[in-house]
Amino acid sequence: MNVSRKWLGHYVDIENLSNTQLADVLTGGGLEVEGFTPLIPTSGLIIGHVLACEKHPNADTLFVTKVDVGHEVLDIVCGGQNVAVNQKVIVAPIGVQVGDLLIKSVKLRGQPSNGMICSYKEIGVADYMVDDYIEEGIAVLDPEAPIGEDAIAYLGLDDVIFDVSLTPNRADCLAMDALALEVGALLDQIVTLPYNEPVITTDSTPLIVRSETENGPQFLGRIIEKVTLKPSPQWIKAILIANGIKPLNNIVDISNLVMLETGQPCHFYDRDLISDEITVKDKIEMDYVALDENTYQLQKEDVLITSNNEVIGIGGIMGGELSKINDDTSALILEMAQFDRVAIRHSSRRLNLMTDAAQRFSKGIDPLAVFKAMERATALLVEYADAQVIHPVVSILEQVPYQRLVQVKHSHINGLLGTKLKEAVVLDVFERLNFKPELKDGVYTCDIPSYRQDISIGADLIEEVIRLIGFDIIDDQPLHLKETVGRLTRKQHVLRQYKQLCGGFNLHEVITYTLMNPKYKAGPFGLDEPYEIASPLSEDRKMVRNQLFHAMLQNLSYNVSYKNKPNNFFEISEVYGKNTQETRLAIVLNDDVVALDFKNKNIKGDFYALKGMLEVLVDAIGLNRHQLTYQKVDSEQPYLHPHQSGNIYYQDQHIGYGGLVHPTLAKEYDVSDVWILEIDVDGLLGFSPQPVTYETISKLIQVEKDLALVMRKDISLKAIQESIVKAGQPYIEDVHVFDVYESESLGPDHYSIALHLYFKTKQIYTDAEIQAVVDTILAQLAKEFGVTLR
Hints:
Blueprint: E1 2-4, H1 5-11, H2 19-28, E2 32-38, E3 46-55, E4 63-68, E5 73-78, E6 88-93, E7 97-98, E8 101-102, E9 106-108, E10 111-113, E11 115-117, H3 120-123, E12 140-141, H4 151-154, E13 160-165, H5 176-187, E14 208-211, E15 218-225, H6 234-242, H7 250-262, E16 266-270, E17 277-281, E18 286-289, E19 295-298, E20 304-307, E21 310-314, E22 318-319, E23 331-338, H8 341-351, H9 356-363, H10 369-384, E24 389-390, E25 394-395, E26 405-409, H11 410-417, H12 423-432, E27 438-440, E28 443-447, H13 458-469, H14 490-504, E29 508-509, E30 515-516, E31 543-544, H15 549-561, E32 568-577, E33 580-589, H16 607-620, E34 628-632, E35 640-650, E36 653-661, H17 663-668, E37 675-680, H18 681-685, E38 704-712, H19 717-727, E39 732-741, E40 750-759, H20 767-785, E41 788-789
Parallel strand pairs: 14-17, 29-32
Antiparallel strand pairs: 1-13, 2-13, 3-4, 3-6, 4-5, 6-11, 6-12, 7-8, 9-10, 15-23, 15-24, 15-25, 16-23, 17-20, 18-19, 20-21, 21-22, 26-28, 27-28, 30-31, 32-33, 33-37, 34-35, 35-36, 36-37, 38-40, 38-41, 39-40
């Protein structure tokens, strides 16, 4: 942000401060000054009067002149083809630096020259800074220009511009009014701001304003008639020039001045070009020609200003060609409005149209500035545009009393800052900031002015105290820490352990975005009601993720497109829902899992690989893998394969899912054969680890028995395993599936599974005893499930 020292000095006394001192004051108050430069880089220029002008005897394009600069007459050789007798010109005397040229006493083609008659371009004056700008040739001033005076001061360009970097919370300082109050508080000085009494010359108005959108909550309109279009006074021009705005005419310049003063963007319409009915609305799609004569494609979310169903402006961004001020303008409709900051920011970004107005609306403005800006603009139009008929203001909402009270304890101020400030000192700070403080029982109650939208809690008040008093009052204190033995929480330990185990599975760790596109909010095992960011930087990253499913598939798709291998990943991250936060572990397998044993045989990445990894993870934290159960996923949901996926439970608590990504969805990501597992780590940590028990290693060889069973496909393998263990008690220790076989001979609804039965190693078994146990198991399976031996 550019700040004019000259304009700031109209409101607060900074005459005794050097530029460096003023920069230090602003920076110390949190308004960091990146640097400061003169508006015009050339100094020492004076006004001269051309007394004589003759052609150079030895050069066709040069002139020999005599110029009166007040205290002497200088001989100057000039190359400007428009130089003439009796002109008032800008002279750079000997010793002045003009650009890269240091002016010296020289002879040019035999003629002495003791100075330089300058053009506007040579001294750094841009075309928008003066009315009579001459592109080629010397600068010619008004005949009344005083000889010998400072030329830059005469042009009103004797200013210093400070480049101030505002933090996002101090958008109020985009208004000179608020900035002057801030500087006054920092310097503890009185600030004099312009004030205008309301002006009305007629009691009624035909103007009607209304809103049909939630993104335009406030709109003030006023008709002003019999205005005269003419150049602005020099002081208004100087302010606009210092802020990089080209002066056009008194009406347009006043609208820009009011925005710079109050921070409230305003727009003036030519009343003769629109109707007396104005409606703020959205949900319109069309091509629109704006003031910059460019055509923009408007969409339904854009806030628009309409009159008689015609669009006359893009709300909060730019007006239109249809209703702009022109040479015949004699009556105005003034607009002062409030718009939703997020809506304006989104529209300006999409349209690539970040105007001064859009910048202010996007960052947030004083909610009461509309009323102050309306009266200020009206008063300026009366004084400088000869406005004669002033209608009453029409608004969507009436002005309501504004009050925002924030409290903080005196003890909290000193406790947080490590200071011993007196109550009188703190009260003085709040009074300088116009916070209207009241102190009762050690508690300050501050009535925050409307332009300080950044003050909402007690900590904000504490920040204001130290900001104005200065951080240098805080004494250095040695750091005192209690010596304690650090340790990890159980969760921290488990997360580290899981990362090590996943690394042992030869999985690559990935870290995906916490923010996601809202179209991905639906997914397996997703938390309800995911949060949307109020002010997202991107529409593609406006929702906080509620599951890891889509992020892992996006990552896989990216790596597959670059032909990276092996594509086996894991991620441990947080997911979020309404008042809920969970730590999840997700694993994706798209290639074989590399084995680390001496056989060096790769393991196929499939459901059983995921299941094995899950069992290792469960065992690692002291839980029992046999408490894991699986249920088929809903065949209607489009994310997982209905026959090769399952929801995972531990002791009847749903802790995740695992299986094959639905082929249709995988195709959308340009991948195939993707196996995914996602579990709730917090859910697992909710179970207490089982106590570790120790048994003597048996000296007996464990007996194993293989069975091949034929069963219906709708029967759960888990149910078969549990039935075998139950029927084989007290002899059967565990049951593992090692093969699945399907054949036309078995029928479409049946398949065969091969099982390892592990007998407990507490006794020596005879063949007859083993067969008796097997017969009992087969009988139970046949009775319970209709299972037969293959």
